[in-house]
Amino acid sequence: MSPTFLTELESILGKNYVLTSAADTTPYLTDWRKRYTGKALAVLLPGNVKEVAAIVKACAKANIAIVPQGGHTGFCGGATPDASGKQVVLNLKRMNQVREIDASNQTISLEAGCILQAVQERAVSEGFLFPLSLGAEGSCMIGGNLATNAGGTNVLRYGNTRDLCLGLEVVTAQGEIWNGLKGLRKDNTGYDLRDLFIGSEGTLGIITAAVMKLHPLPISQWTTLVATEDIAATIALLNLFQKRATSLLTGFEMMTQESLALNEKHFPQMTNPLQNNPPLTILIELSDHESEAHVRQLLESILEEAFEAGIISNAVIASNLSQANSFWHMREHITLAQAAEGANLKHDITIPLSALESFIYETDQLVRAKYPGVRIINFGHLGDGNLHYNIAPPEGSDAQAFNLANEKPIHELIYAQVERCKGSISAEHGVGQLKLDGLRAHKGEVAHELMKTLKRALDPQNILNPHKVVSI
Questions:
Q1: Helix, strand or coil for residue 387?
Q2: What is the C-alpha separation between 293 and 159, in angstroms, rounded?
Q3: How far apart, in whole angstroms, are the C-alpha atoms of residue 428 and residue 388?
Q4: How far apart are CA 41 and CA 58, in angstroms?
Q5: Backbone dihedral angles phi then psi of residue 380, each to the nearest 5 degrees
Q6: Could you give the CA distance from residue 46 to residue 57 in angstroms, rounded to a whole number?
Q7: Range 49-75 average pLDDT
């Protein structure tokens, strides 16, 4: 590294935005789960895309690797530097402006550092819905959502972040600025560069801004908790709602008895409103652009049909917004309950709905037989097949010791089941460094080599988030 490198960065950003002291850099060096901690030569806080481009050019010249970072809420260590102390962290939190809202086109143009919840609130203030919704929405940023193709609770109706994006602004590995900020729903002009950068976790380019879709704000929403006895009944219930409610179905979340018991242990106020905490609690939301009476009547009609068919055994409809929010908070607090309980082994997977019953039954049996006493904290966005299939050590055991001894074989067992069912080892959290080693086997040799070819072509120096997603 040239001795003038940091001086050059300070000339680009100003001294206040080149952080080098341990006190200043520490908050940026450990991932949300506290699984990965690295070191950084500096943490850089650019304020606009031209500064990002200048930083990349300086790093390319000095052959310094860059770790792009947003809200730092990822689960796979994708935004954490390595231990060398020779990388820089490029945090985009200062780039947090909404550049334009085009009401006629129903789009919002915004910078990568915008916090998701702030975007949701801005959309509502303009009479629109921005439907991306995650548990970390109070701190995660749009750039990170795009870089990981985040999912969340509304994928069933509105799709992943990829489906909400129309255009991007990206800084390449050479420090060039690609301005693809077009709010077009049709643009059939060759390779779709937008889709190339979405989900690439900052390994192919640095997303600095985007044009995102807005949707009409629903007039009414109704939320219910429903008790089912098994996965077969749950899928039958999903099919019934899809048939009867079609596009009004915006949420279909599954929570197991064991998940909600852990929730109540750490958050006693979050008792399941359904009596006796049934085997499966399903959180369902309908959104309508007609009257409240219309969607309420539809919801009651579908639940009545489900009762008559023996698919469900109990249901509670939220009587007001506060109660509806409490249902969602119960779902969202499962992750917090796991954190409070201690270290656990997370699996963010997707299974085809047709194989879901087989996967859960067989995998539960295999895990419990091989690791007696473990707790399977299984919950997720069942409507799109995304499970958070997490393993907590036996109660009272040394969690760190258990995980250290068993993490690899448990991952291998569960991922083998995922492969058997033709699923995915990463549904919405990305690859990062956590799943790097297993990606080749999962993607297959041809797909993995194609990914490496893209990485070499777009980032030949390997300075953009090296050793994440794919290694070259």
A1: strand
A2: 27
A3: 10
A4: 14
A5: 155, -170
A6: 14
A7: 96
Give kind and range of the element (H or E) at residue 234. Answer: helix 231-245
Which contiguous run of DSSP H or E holds residue 19?
Answer: strand 18-19
Enumerate the β-bridge partners of residue 101: 108
Cβ neighbours, 10 Å, residue 16: 8
The rounded distance, in Å, linking the Cα atoms of 183 and 436 is: 34
Distance separating alpha carbons of residues 10 and 16, to the nearest angstrom: 8
From CA 204, how far away is CA 453, in angstroms rounded? 11
pLDDT for 33 equals: 85
What tokens were used for 246? 């079609």
Q: Which helix (H) or strand (E) holds 437?
A: helix 436-443
Question: Looking at residue 2, what is its pLDDT?
Answer: 66
**pLDDT of 149-159, one tens digit each?**
999 899 999 99
**Alpha-carbon gap, residue 293 to 296, rounded angstroms:** 5
CA angle 138, 141, 142 (to 5 degrees): 125
Q: What is the pLDDT of residue 342?
A: 87
- The token pair at 145 is 């959502």
CB 410 within 8 A of CB 389: no
Question: In the predicted model, is pLDDT for residue 85 greater than 80?
Answer: yes
